[in-house]
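Fold this: Clavaminate synthase-like protein
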Amino acid sequence: MAPVAVAPPVDVLSNKLDKLHLATSKPGAQQPDISYHPDEAKWKARTARRLAEDPSLPSTALPEGFPKVLDSPLVWEGKDWTDESQWTYVLNDDQLQEIDSALKHFHSLAVPQGRVNQSTFPLPTLGPILKDLARELHTGRGFFVLRALPVESYSRTDIILIYAGVSSYIGNLRGVQDRDAGVLAHIKDLTETHPAKTIGAPAYTTDKQVFHTDAGDIISLLALETAAEGGTSRISSSWRVYNELAQTRPDLIKTLSEPWVHDTYGGDPLYKSRPLLYREDSHTIIQYARRIFTGFLGLPRSQDIPPITEAQAEALDAIHFLAEKYNLGLDFRKGDVQYINNLSIFHARDGFSDTHEKKRHLLRLWLRNEDLAWKLPEPLKENWERLYYTAKEDEQRFPLEPEIRQASHGKNGKVEGGKYV
């Protein structure tokens, strides 16, 4: 039996990454002492210092239009859920057979993969159930897990078609995630095959991912394989976090609702500005990724853009640690598909270890349901237009193997001879 290669312990890997972040992310003297991995002691010290400097902060008025309390099924805590049957829909044998028949029907059409949709992937009995679950994302608790697609019974191409076909009943539009109209992403540790300088996002490491949101309305993940150890998927209600901040630190709600400098990592322009928190058409929407403000591994924060403020640094830590406080850990099994409302739910991942025989590997789609979609705030519309309305069906690409997204590729990494160096 071949020897098993085990990844470094999660805490050791995290410490090494943090040291690299701190060593490479020095945009200027004014950038706060903050890294990708949140430090609770630093957060508490920063909070104490800021409150001592200005005791009136907790008396700050909420921004106009932002409510004191959000009352909705989207407001929940992890302890509110006592059994996974509350959020898991288990596919039965008849439904799995219906999915198999839909796959055969799609193949009989001999059309490009991008045309997989409700009409070309017919699910007469399962489809209406999936549409009801889609409503749960927008007006209910905001998440559910579909259990479990038989991933080992199909080729990689066919399981991707099944995943896309089933997901078309949750969201009829697929968002572009990468160059050349790539609408499918692979979430997998690539540190054994790619140098650290080419990796700018924790999705491609075994490292812990802190609470954040992606782009788009609905985030979907299919587990092709789970980790040998660790890697728990965690979600948390941003509406619950909002309520606590609105009650105790309304000044941070104000900070989150004001423009922030978003690093484009050498793009044109060098940075963009927009708020992280919005109130639109009775919905409270948050869109943020911590690494954009702290840097990560091969993508340190750019030195020639304005630093974040101390208030913003405190806000980043506050939303992370509150999300952690109220999180729900999901038992994400092989073949499970996780769907979450990306506009109202944070997600994160524990660090993990792989072996040769068992390597964590997820597939991701960014979906939008045009019938149920929330009204978007103006600063997000341009990105949503690019995500969902620029790639025609016949142009959509579903890569079979992991690729580092262009937006997550390290600044110093380059491609030579078809390989990252």
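Residues 93-109 form the longest helix (17 residues). The two ends are 32 Å apart (CA to CA).
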